[in-house]
């Protein structure tokens, strides 16, 4: 008898897992030695060459998650978003289209790292016991993947995991992440009072385009330039344009979906946000005054921008998008004439520009909370408002309507024609917004509708407030776990001495703010600083980076020269 067979025979399981099928499949995808995976902020991420074993195991976990939820559909998305083309990632989507419940994350990590079939099955057994999973229930999983060349092989691995659990599956093919989230929710709510829309990709396009047509008034001439990052957003945008009437004029650029090496390369939302400049491929294409926007590689982030008459680049990031939407919604709600108007609130992270926070709280008197980085944190905080607007500065965000708010709007009886018009608008906005997760395409339509209603051009929108100059630096350290934070990542608890240094430096700069946090997706620490001038913001960031580098146990002689000390 082989070692594996012996180990399997001596297993004492508490749950009736299909041991033979799981073990056979696991042997086809042995875990590479020396690689540790972690279910982090955006699921698992890795170089794609190490990734098939993880995706196989995620298939099994997703099946168990479906059993845990009385056979509801669970989503699985294979994408590494804005990361390099050779990377890949996988995440699990819960029945309402939300991120996987956090309590499951450490179990996912343990299952992914189990070195052999016996320990893999034992880890699954622990999960089943912990969450009282009835293994005999049916399981259903819907999955999709982006345009990365590694996806077909990863999909095969996923399918093997699902087959081992005899899961009922729907393969949605090459889709954006938000489309997969939409599908998951629509499949699970079909025919119920929470029906989210027709559970199909044409259903998604119909929902968005019909809401758009109900909302849009006469549009000015001119075309929106959309940088699709050479990713799956290009496919979705082309399909959506078929559904939108002629008055949506868009020019798509960076649509080379299957050309090797171009995905997210010098383009896309992450490029724009981190470089704070126009992607080179748009130079000479974007005209002064014209609006442009960039999606990221899986189309869940959105960045807007324009060039002024002197051809100077201006970025309209997630904070500006949030300010536009929240400011608009709070006025819209007033115009509907509710007896008890829903409370509009905003959720941000520490990265939100200080002037955006001031604008929301002081100018617009909006309630605002700050939470840790990562969509799951923002989403949950936004659920506490009647209408919760959440955005990360990097352009990921959406709007949530609580069930009480939806009920309130459904029952509302407008007393005047104006109230009636505005209530109709609000209902159409609910359909236009993909509330399951940030959706670059839905957000882009929402921004365009609001600009259209307010008769704003990019400059008018930009002038809501002026961004404080800022800089983000990535610092390599020996162990990012040595850096611990509190108050939504705005302060370090450890190393305490480093936080004291941050405080003493920040105090020297007018409008200064700075923080240091460990990344949730990479083995690095991020340093952010803002101040009244560009020079000061950069100087402050470089000081904080220098100290972070040294506190991170790195050799001071090797410190990059831009890091000050
Ligand atoms: C992931 C998060 C994103 C966050 C980023 C921070 C999701 C779906 N995505 O991409 O929201 O801004 O991580 O990365 O949650 P960091 O921890 O490496 O700075
Ligand atoms: Mg993304």
Jot down its keywords.
Alpha-D-Glucose-1,6-Bisphosphate, Chain A, domain 3, single chain, 5-stranded mixed sheet, binds magnesium ion, 19 strands, alpha/beta, 17% strand, 565 residues
Summarize the structure.
This protein is of the alpha/beta class and 565 residues long.
The value of Rg in angstroms is: 24 Å
Bound molecules: 2-acetamido-2-deoxy-6-O-phosphono-alpha-D-glucopyranose, magnesium ion
Please outline the major beta sheet.
5 strands, mixed
Give the quaternary arrangement of the chains: single chain
Supply the CATH superfamily name of the largest domain: Alpha-D-Glucose-1,6-Bisphosphate, subunit A, domain 3
H/I helix tally: 19
Question: Any guess at the CATH architecture of the largest domain?
Answer: 3-Layer(aba) Sandwich
**Spans with pLDDT under 50 lasting ≥5 residues?**
none
Number of domains: 4
Q: What distance separates the N and C termini?
A: 62 Å
Strand order of the largest sheet: 1-3-2-4-5
State the CATH topology of the largest domain: Alpha-D-Glucose-1,6-Bisphosphate, Chain A, domain 3
Mean pLDDT across residues: 96
Structural class: alpha/beta
Helix content: 40-55%
- CATH C-level name of the largest domain: Alpha Beta
**Strand tally, please?**
19
């Amino acid at each position: 008898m082989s070692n594996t067979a012996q180990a399997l025979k001596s297993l004492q399981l508490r749950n009736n897992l299909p041991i033979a099928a799981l073990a056979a499949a696991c042997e086809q995808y042995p875990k590479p030695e020396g690689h540790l995976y972690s279910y982090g902020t955006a699921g698992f991420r890795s170089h794609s060459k190490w990734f098939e074993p993880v995706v196989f195991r995620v298939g099994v976990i997703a099946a168990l998650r479906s059993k845990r939820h009385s056979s509801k559909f669970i989503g699985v998305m294979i994408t590494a978003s804005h990361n390099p083309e050779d990377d890949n990632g996988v995440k699990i989507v819960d029945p309402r289209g939300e991120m996987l419940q956090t309590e499951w994350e450490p179990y996912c990590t343990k299952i992914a790292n189990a070195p052999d079939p016996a320990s893999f099955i034992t880890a699954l057994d622990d999960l089943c016991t912990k969450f009282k999973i009835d293994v005999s229930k049916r399981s259903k999983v819907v999955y999709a993947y982006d345009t990365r060349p590694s996806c077909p092989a990863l999909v095969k691995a996923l399918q093997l995991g699902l087959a081992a659990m005899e899961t009922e599956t729907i393969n949605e093919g090459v889709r954006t992440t938000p489309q997969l989230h939409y599908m998951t929710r629509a499949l699970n709510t079909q025919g119920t009072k929470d029906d989210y829309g027709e559970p199909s990709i044409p259903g998604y396009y119909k929902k968005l385009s019909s809401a758009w047509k109900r909302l849009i008034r006469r549009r000015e001439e001119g075309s929106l330039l959309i940088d699709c990052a050479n990713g799956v957003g290009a496919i979705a945008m082309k399909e959506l344009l078929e559904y939108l009437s002629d008055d949506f004029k868009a020019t798509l650029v960076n649509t080379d979906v299957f050309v090797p090496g171009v995905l997210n390369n010098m383009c896309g939302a992450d490029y724009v946000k981190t470089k704070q400049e126009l992607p080179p491929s748009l130079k000479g294409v974007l005209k002064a005054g014209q609006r442009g926007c960039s999606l990221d590689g899986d189309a869940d982030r959105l960045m807007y921008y324009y060039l002024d008459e002197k051809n100077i680049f201006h970025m309209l990031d997630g904070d500006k998008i949030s300010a536009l939407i929240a400011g608009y919604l709070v006025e819209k709600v007033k115009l509907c004439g509710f007896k008890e108007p829903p409370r509009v609130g905003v959720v941000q992270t520490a990265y939100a520009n200080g002037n955006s926070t001031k604008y929301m709280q002081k100018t617009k008197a909006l309630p605002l909370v700050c939470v840790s980085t990562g969509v799951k944190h923002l989403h949950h905080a936004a659920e506490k408002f009647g209408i919760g607007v959440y955005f990360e500065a990097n352009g990921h965000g959406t709007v949530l309507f609580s069930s009480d708010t939806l009920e309130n709007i459904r029952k509302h009886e407008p007393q005047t024609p104006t109230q009636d018009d505005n209530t109709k608008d609000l209902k159409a906005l609910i359909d236009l917004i993909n509330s399951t997760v940030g959706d670059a395409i839905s957000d882009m339509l929402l921004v365009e509708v609001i600009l259209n209603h307010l008769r704003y051009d990019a400059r008018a929108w930009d002038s809501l407030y002026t961004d404080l100059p800022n800089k983000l630096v990535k610092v390599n350290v020996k162990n990012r776990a040595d850096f611990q934070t509190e108050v939504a990542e705005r302060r370090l608890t450890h190393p305490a001495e480093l936080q004291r240094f941050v405080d003493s430096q920040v105090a020297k700069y007018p409008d200064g703010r700075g923080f240091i946090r460990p990344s949730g997706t990479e083995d690095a620490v991020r340093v952010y600083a803002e101040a009244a001038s560009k020079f000061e913001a950069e100087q402050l960031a470089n000081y904080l980076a220098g100290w972070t580098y040294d506190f991170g146990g790195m050799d001071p002689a090797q410190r990059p020269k831009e890091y000050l000390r």
